Amino acid sequence: MIPSLIDLSGAPWPVLPPGVHEATLAEIQVTFATTPHRQWLLDGFVRATHALRFAGCGVVYLDGSFVTGKPHPGDYDGCWEHFGIDFTLLDPVLLDFTGKREAQKRKYQGEMFPALTQNGVGGTFLEFFQVEKYSGLPKGILRVLLGASGATP
Question: With a threshold of 0.85, does the pTM exceed it?
């Protein structure tokens, strides 16, 4: 279940409360795909989850302004667990981080990173996404299981 957004001192928009919150794609659609633009972003995320699931990924995390109260998010950010992935089946675009991840944004409307990879700032992407970038305070992210019941909106 997706919790209600909270106001966080220093954050420009309401955010998810701290923690990793389980969600289905259907719940994400109802909660965050509230405009045609947001639906377009979610469609890209869903396509990315299908590509990841095809390669054997079982868990993805969703973050970015898409899961905040920002009226018109530019994209979404996310990361994926590599356990069980057959990298020969993974869409190479999901491993292309060149040009500020332009290929990912073009194909999937957002950016996806390996969750346990170091983000360059210190810590993993999974840890990095749980810090609100304006305030530096803890915030939440969504965890989506890519099993048969969680992967279709």
Answer: yes
Q: Residue 109: name the closest of 45, 49, 152 by CA.
A: 45
CA 71 to chain centre: 17
Please give the backbone phi and psi of residue 88, each rounded to the nearest 5 degrees, phi first: -75, -20
- Residue 24: how many other CB atoms lie within 10 Å: 18
Mean pLDDT value of segment 97-126: 93
CA 76 to chain centre: 6
Inter-CA distances, 78 with 9, 10, 108, 118, Å: 23, 22, 11, 14
- Phi-psi domain of 8 (left: phi exceeds 0; alpha: psi -120 through 50; beta: other): beta
Tokens of 150: 């969680």
Q: How confident is the model at residue 139 (pLDDT cuts 50, 70, 90)?
A: very high
DSSP β-ladder status, 19-22 and 110-114: unpaired
**C-alpha span between 36 and 108 (Å, rounded):** 16
Count of alpha carbons within 13 Å of 1, Cβ hemisphere only?
2
pLDDT at 152: 39
Q: How far is residue 103's CA from residue 100's CA, in Å, rounded to a whole number?
A: 9
How far, in Å, CA of 110 to CA of 43, rounded?
Answer: 10
